[in-house]
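# nightly structure sweep
# worker-07 picked up a monomer target from the shared queue
# config: single-sequence mode, recycle default, output format = structure tokens
# input follows
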Amino acid sequence: MSAANGRTQNDLFTSAVAAPGRAKRNGDGDAAAYVPINYWAAAHDASTALETNRLTSCSALLVLTDRQPDGIYANRTMVHLNGSSLNNRLNGGVDGYKLVDDLARQVNEAGGGKIIWASGPDNRNTSILTALGQEGRNGKGYPLAELMLNPKVTTDIVSTNEITVSPDGSYTLGELGTGKLDAADFLSILREESVQNGIEIAGYTPRTKADSVASDGRAIADETNASAELAEDAADAPALLQDLEDIGELGRLFEV
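# output follows
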């Protein structure tokens, strides 16, 4: 997959992330590449984990494709979205909207993959829905929602202040946040809103409630009434879209 200015994803990964002092080792012994706020990076080897932290109102998008027989995903991309908004220029001058479009194309070409949306602990359900329901450039489509509603991907949604994703798609979360959320509820609402706006994802099947567990298998507390809460949040979510756009514009002033 190519990126802005004719540079490859791996070039940006090398220049943006593998700078001195950024790479470190995680608890499993794999090299972990750190992705700062308003940065994105990709890894293609069998050992490098991708990690980010300082998620508050920010969110991180992880897209993993081309799963190998040994369980390793050959293409792994992490994006740390300032204010959870796509309306930012990332490292290398990459446009957030275009990057998600490119990632969606990568998923389709690979025949599926795994998506992880890590939302900062300051984001409540309303904010998560608003972020995932962002309109595309010039109001065309809903790139994040469409990416996650692709019937050939599995989607995890988590609430955390930091996340480290291993090459096999497993991950560890920070101490803040409520952990793994019920993605099925979020995706069901996003699909309904997409259909209402003339965008239907054929063949989409919501994931089961059994997926609403933490990475270590623990049930997430306070998620029992998630469906009812999300239904209320969905009604409020459109009013927050302008806030995300404003945050995105503000983020441009603080680009690294």
